[in-house]
UniProtKB/TrEMBL annotation, chain A:
Residues 82-210 form the Fungal lipase-type domain. This is Lipase. Gene3D superfamilies: alpha/beta hydrolase. Pfam families: Lipase_3. SUPFAM superfamilies: alpha/beta-Hydrolases. It comes from the Bacteria.
Automatic annotation (TrEMBL), chain B:
This is DUF6795 domain-containing protein. It comes from the Bacteria. It holds the Pfam family DUF6795. Residues 49-150 form the DUF6795 domain.
């Protein structure tokens, strides 16, 4: 079974940005490198797959070239490539505090914005791929590639392909956000034949949306961290070689084994935070993961986890955080120990969000909710800035 | 006399308003500059283009040649070949704030095509992330030797600016 090298996967994710729209003659401006041209043919496709993305407030809807499909040639004829690009027009979906949760493939809960965008592309994918993939044998591999929101859409495409056709599916994402909840991440991990999730240490987009959304595969494990940067730097999200460092540059190798494998399995770890230690927190991927783990630990310690996690699949994020704040208020009231643990979590969240000056005194529902709003707001603003001009 | 005096007085009355307006403009510019919103860059959309269109060596006259460049929006120029099959486009450059935006995945996408008997031939099809036209593009766009009997193919050129990546250009033209 063939795997795309990091350099080829990155070229696909990058090249699809040159397919903003077909020219007046219907030509797709996407000439490919020697290595990619040898493997796939994009000829005979009169236009790219169009996707519809609308602003969350319905202010605008645009239809642009969004994805390209390549057919494997010669000894690669048993493979198909789908490359999807990111878009600024659904940045709002990603950073909306009131994220909706929709039911995707396999009845798993996913981000409603991503699901909507994918749903608009699905009929074109079906038209172009159904015949080819129904006839293909079980050794046929479909490679799904995408950067940013294109990565999220590539994940949904991969799931859909796996549920529709008897083929192997491999997923390659660069700086992709979280797509769904735990059930989705688990299901996605089990079904897809290989998943290469590439990130940069300072790329803010993989931090969003916040928990209960988590990364597939394996709840965040199996990540390929392509640089050693920390903190938040918008330029770290860029796909092209002009970025700092630019995924195109950091993925320029033929061997996945050479790329460092990062495994932040915080989600299943027990993390209890002490209020006095809060200044150790910083606005990094590391702390974002650790805060998630601390929140889950607190809910588990207090016996609230299954109830709260269950609510996540039913509601929008806004109602979810509202209920979460109410639960945490009750937890803090239950004992001094839980009150201290809650204060520890909130204190770290405030430092993470750049509000170190705020001291935690009263653990009321209003205050807890405000801390969540502030933290998520800070995170969303940085992610939105990174995405708005894609 | 009185009429004469009224004008400078009227102007004097305008001064505080002008100062206030100037201050507001200045301060908003400072703000904008702080966030880099108005920062504009020179973006080279296309260098001078010169070429010749033939069919099995014979010049094609009066053929419509279109140059389309996409960078945020579309910039389109058209011309016709002369009796020798020659055509040319001037250099095209813009000032754009697009590169100042954080993380713009913007590409300068250029297409040049000829329409002969209702059929489209691609003379140039390439994209770059660079704001200055790459050297390899400048050199070749200055001498497009295009015979419509040539099959369209992807050419791979040495990338002087970023040697780890190659340039990929779709074209029926040939260069030695």
């Amino acid at each position: 079974m063939e795997t795309l090298s990091p350099s080829i996967a990155a070229e696909c994710a990058d090249a699809v940005y040159s397919v903003f729209s077909p020219d007046s003659m219907g030509n797709i401006p996407m000439p490919l490198s020697t290595q990619l041209e040898r493997r796939f043919s994009f000829k005979g496709k009169p236009s790219p797959v169009m996707g519809e993305t609308g602003g969350i407030f319905g202010l605008y809807t645009q239809t642009t070239g969004f994805a390209v499909i390549g057919e494997g040639r010669e000894r690669h004829r048993n493979s198909t490539l789908i490359a999807i690009r990111g878009s600024s027009s659904i940045a709002d979906y990603l950073t909306d505090f009131d994220v909706g949760i929709a039911t995707g493939i396999n009845n798993q809960s996913v981000h409603s914005g991503f699901e909507e965008a994918f749903a608009s592309m699905r009929p074109s994918f079906n038209d172009r791929l159904a015949k080819r993939l129904t006839q293909a044998g079980p050794n046929h591999t479909v490679h799904c590639v995408g950067h940013s929101l294109g990565g999220a859409l590539a994940s949904l495409t991969a799931d859909w392909l796996k549920s529709q056709f008897p083929v192997k599916v491999k997923l390659y994402t660069f700086g992709a956000p979280r797509v769904g909840l735990k059930g989705y991440a688990t299901k996605n991990t089990n079904q897809i034949d290989a998943h290469y999730r590439c990130t940069h240490g300072a790329d803010p987009v993989p931090l969003a949306p916040v928990w209960p959304f988590i990364h597939a595969p394996n709840e965040g494990a199996g990540e390929y961290r392509l640089d050693s940067a920390e903190g938040i730097n918008f330029s770290a999200h860029r796909m092209g070689h002009k970025g700092t460092p630019g995924y195109r540059n950091t993925a320029e190798t033929d061997d996945w084994g050479k790329l460092k494998r990062q495994s932040m399995r915080f989600l299943n770890q027990t993390v209890r935070l002490r209020y006095e230690d809060r200044l150790q927190a910083s606005f990094t991927n590391y702390w974002s993961e650790k805060l998630n783990a601390a929140l889950i630990t607190l809910l588990k310690d207090a016996g609230y986890y299954s109830v709260v996690a269950g609510q996540a699949t039913m509601s929008s994020a806004l109602t979810f955080y509202d209920r979460l704040a109410r639960s945490l208020e009750k937890i803090a009231e239950a004992s001094t120990e839980f009150a201290e643990q809650t204060a520890g979590l909130l204190g770290h969240m405030l430092v993470f969000a750049g509000k170190a000056a705020v001291t935690v005194t009263k653990l009321t529902y209003q205050f807890i909710r405000w801390v969540f709003e502030t933290t998520i707001g800070t995170l969303n603003r940085s992610v939105k800035k990174a995405l708005e001009s894609l | 006399m009185t009429k004469h005096r009224a004008t400078p007085q009227g102007l004097l009355a305008l001064i505080p308003i002008l100062v206030a307006a100037g201050y507001m403009l200045y301060s908003s510019e400072v703000m904008a500059d702080m966030f880099g919103w108005f920062k504009r860059y020179d973006v080279h959309l296309s260098p001078k283009v010169r070429g010749r269109l033939t069919a099995r060596g014979k010049p094609l006259e009066g053929i419509l040649i279109t140059r389309e460049v996409h960078y945020g929006k579309s910039y389109i120029d058209r011309t016709r070949t002369d009796s020798e099959g020659n055509f040319a486009f001037p250099q095209r450059q813009i000032r754009s704030s697009l590169p100042a935006r954080p993380l713009t995945e913007a590409r300068v996408i250029q297409l040049i095509h000829a329409e002969v008997d209702g059929k489209s031939y691609i003379l140039w099809q390439a994209a770059t992330e660079d704001l200055q036209t790459p050297k390899a593009f400048r050199e070749r766009l200055g001498r497009l030797d295009c015979d419509i009997s040539n099959p369209d193919q992807t050419h791979h050129f040495y990338n002087h600016e970023h040697p780890q990546f190659e340039h990929n250009v779709g074209s029926i033209c040939r260069w030695e």
